[in-house]
Design a protein that fits this description.
Layout (H helix, E strand, L loop, with lengths): L1 H17 L7 E13 L5 E14 L4 E14 L3 E15 L6 E18 L8 E17 L4 E13 L6 E14 L4
Antiparallel strand pairs: 1-2, 1-8, 2-3, 3-4, 4-5, 5-6, 6-7, 7-8
Length: about 180
């Protein structure tokens, strides 16, 4: 009888997690970000950093995402680079699966890069802002109704620094927290 009670408790716990996926009002993502970034035709480098985004879900399919990214890297031993982006746009999610949620988004906004010579004796800083666009998507693995792992996010990331067009790649993964329930 004791074993039967434990089996019932475990089954009820699992069934609660495997029920129909509810639509959260908001999702917040935070995690690692890698980008192959360019500042002009001849200068590209690999940079690492973080990516944070918040999505307000309007329906099971459509949400509005605000995305912030910051990556840093060094070119040789002479210059530190910092890339920042603030983007926003629609996100489309396919919520038919209980275990994972694939999504696609198109984001547009502002990107900025700054360079600082090493050593920073003369305090010579250079920075530039430009229009940026990111189109891509990824997959969230649902662990619970409030927690998911962003297994992968891949974005085609384009900017126009130094009046040259950069076609870059941005990758990321991390944790997604979900809040509220939308009917």
């Amino acid at each position: 009888m004791r074993r039967f009670c434990w089996v019932v408790v475990v089954l009820l716990s699992v069934c609660g997690c495997l029920g129909a996926q509810e639509l959260p009002k908001a999702e917040i993502f935070g995690g690692y970000s890698f980008a192959h970034a360019g500042v002009n035709k001849s200068t590209t480098l690999n940079v690492n950093g973080l990516n944070v985004s918040a999505t307000g879900n309007i329906s099971r399919l459509l949400g509005i995402t605000v995305d912030f990214g910051r990556q840093t890297g060094t070119l040789g031993s002479s210059t530190d680079y910092e890339f920042r982006s603030f983007l926003a746009g629609p996100r489309f999610s396919y919520r038919k699966h209980e275990k994972f949620t694939p999504f696609a988004h198109f984001l547009i906004g502002d990107a900025r890069y700054a360079s600082v010579p090493i050593p920073d004796v003369a305090r010579l800083h250079y920075h530039e802002n430009t229009l940026a666009m990111a189109a891509g998507g990824g997959v969230d693995v649902n662990l619970h109704s409030i927690v998911a792992i962003r297994l992968i996010q891949v974005d085609y990331y384009t900017t126009r620094f130094s009046k040259d067009r950069q076609n870059d790649l941005r990758l990321g993964f991390g944790i997604v927290l979900r809040f509220g329930k939308r009917q």
